[in-house]
Amino acid sequence: MGNYSVPKPNQSDKNVIPFIPDGEFYFTKGVEAYQKQKFELSLKWFRKALSEKPDHPLYQCQMSIVYTEIGSYHKANQLLTRVLTAYGEEYIDCYYLIANNYAHLGLLQDAIKYAELYLDKDPEGDFAEEAIELITVLDFEEDEEDDDWALDEEDEVLIYQETVFYHLEREEWQEAIALLEEMIALFPDFPQARHEYHYALFFAGETVEAIDLEEKYVQDHPETLNSYMNLAIFYYHTNKKAKFDQIVTMLQNIYPVHEQQKLRMATTFTQIGFYEEALLRFKLLHKSRLKGHPSYYRWFSTCYYFVGNEEKAEAIWLEGCKEHTILTKQLRPWKRDKLI
């Protein structure tokens, strides 16, 4: 047996330093998972890190970046706003990150505002070039959002948007309509609420009113892309062929910059039966930024089904079901009587 001796009770304990994970350990694991694009795992590690140090600014910033990657832009901005409130000038990059998230949400004025704040505070910063480019693009795209919103209103808007998004994704039209009516009353200059309201109205059965409202809106705001996408769907379902053909021709020549509008364009082409066109648009999307949207999986799988690739359609649908339990409770769109 050699010179090996059995340690006396508790003797070994004196020579072993116990390993107790701390916030820094969890944070490092979160960064490693993020770098491997394992975003859900990364979020779990960052949550553990924040449970150890709830107010740590770097942990919150890095977690916000993961939320941005998966398309949870509201949650990302909530974290970044907390950091700015607590640490202000120490974390100026937060202004740019918030601007980027607002751009993805289609809140163009807010995106420009935060990008300009970033440049005012750090004109030579790491994101200066990106901020200038963002402002240039948004200034070009901006058409109807000329309002000068107070910053303290934005949190309330985000809460409404998140809840409306929840009901629209579940096709709970009446619930969405009630909330959108409140939004329009509270924030009359917030255009996205009106387009979502018209969409929900249409599929709740108020087709004539929905079309009338959207047509009136586009007369007053002729450069509004969301109106044209809504009307393409409305005209398709009501067999207004001449108007439908005119709008589709226009949409085929438009390629939006922001991911949210890119997704909306892809889903619009799917809903009007232009599956080849829709498939091309879906392939231009960054999946990592849209995993938070059940509609991404719903309509991407539908495209593949109708172009004859049922195996791919089923694979994308099942992937979506793993990400969103709501899809497990719905029929596959191609098995419905009509697509909506």
Automatic annotation (TrEMBL):
It comes from the Bacteria. SMART domains: TPR (SM00028). The keyword Repeat applies. Keywords: Repeat, TPR repeat. GO terms for biological process: receptor-mediated virion attachment to host cell. The keyword Lipid biosynthesis does not apply. TPR repeats lie at residues 23-56. GO terms for cellular component: cell outer membrane. InterPro entries: TPR-like_helical_dom_sf, TPR_rpt, Ycf3. Coiled coil: none annotated. This is Tetratricopeptide repeat protein. It comes from Gracilibacillus oryzae.
